[in-house]
Design a protein that fits this description.
It is built from four helices and five strands. By secondary structure, it is of the alpha+beta class. Strands 1-2-3-5-4 form a five-stranded antiparallel beta sheet, with helices on one face.
Length: 144
């Protein structure tokens, strides 16, 4: 495999704190700059990353802290972003991905996180099991 065709990967571990959501957004935006994305493409990805990280902090770890595993990959013109946690997991992924569904006990969340991820990215895959955490993998082709 030539150096040009080899996938490039960024891996980070962040504390599951709301303040790290902005850091994750910016880190992904800087990493994807090598694809020469449009501002709209950068904004789309940043929004999706925000939603995934926020879900981890609020739902996965229920605000009690933990580690967010962020992995970003570039292969050709495709960007892959994976956000994982070791939180409580999702018992019913299909239901959780329905617009307006939320498990936030305070009722302050809109329940649109997964809907935004699906709207701004080309592909969204969610793997989860109760007590085993959640992994959200999102892909976007960058036209630049």
């Amino acid at each position: 495999m030539s150096e040009q065709n080899k996938p490039e990967i960024l891996k980070m571990e962040l504390e599951a704190l709301s303040k790290n959501e902005e850091f994750a957004r910016v880190a992904v935006a800087v990493f994807m700059a090598r694809l020469n994305p449009t501002l709209e493409e950068v904004d789309d990805v940043k929004t999706a990353v925000s939603e995934a990280v926020t879900n981890t902090v609020i739902h996965g770890y229920q605000g009690k802290g933990g580690i967010i595993y962020l992995e970003v990959g570039v292969e050709g013109q495709e960007l892959t972003v994976s956000v994982k946690d070791d939180g409580i997991g999702i018992p019913d992924i299909k239901k959780a991905m329905e617009p307006m569904y939320t498990t936030d006990p305070d009722g302050e969340r809109s329940g649109m996180g997964f809907s935004f991820m699906e709207a701004f990215m080309d592909e969204v895959e969610v793997n989860s099991a109760p007590g085993k955490g959640t992994a959200v993998t999102m892909k976007k082709k960058i036209d630049g």
